Amino acid sequence: MSNRLAFALAGTVLVGAAALLSVPAAAQQSPLQPSPRISVTGEGEVNVAPDMAILNLTVLREAETARAALTANNDAMKQVLAALKEAGVAERDLQTSGLSIQPRYAQPGKDRSGEPKIAGYSVSNALTVRVRNLADAGGILDKAVGLGVNQGGGIAFVKDDMKPTLTEARKRAVADAVARAKTLAEAADVKLGKILSIEEQSIMARPMPYGGAVRMAASDAAVPLASGENTYRTQVNVIFEIAP
From CA 122, how far away is CA 125, in angstroms rounded? Predict the structure, then answer.
């Protein structure tokens, strides 16, 4: 190859490289613009009757010493547990949810002189009970009070198997989102395209708890209870493409 031809080729390469370097960076990086979209939030709500009750029961005993209070509490709780099992409550549906041993202090005199002194001890043992047959809940609560439960009484009515309920709530939420997106597309005079993403935002349960405290003597009749209905709600965020 002659020297002239070699210099000519070298000049061509240098000119090409210079031309590439002179291209603006914005022209080299041309990110794809996102397609026009419609984003909506759909809600789905289902009301169902509960089929299980959760009882919160507490045995409270007081004595001069912590040992005596604990012994009295243990004896009472053993009777309660035995009665619940006899009533058909399974072992897996009984769970100790709290145990407390606290001193009780004597109030100072009218002149408020001196330090408060321990006058005794109180021991409380809390029990969570799942009653899978709602018809038995009132009788079980009544029997528990008769055997020594003297504090607590919180009740929540729930659905044992939540899957069908939540599935229906999700279906209604997506259907609601599609309906909203169609309305927005018609109002904007655009054509609704395919779904780009679906994201579940939250699931909210709104049970109807029975908050009455149990501080009563057992009666001949079962405690009257009303379970009502529970409301379960879910939300979904759905993004639709606007078709060209």
Answer: 10
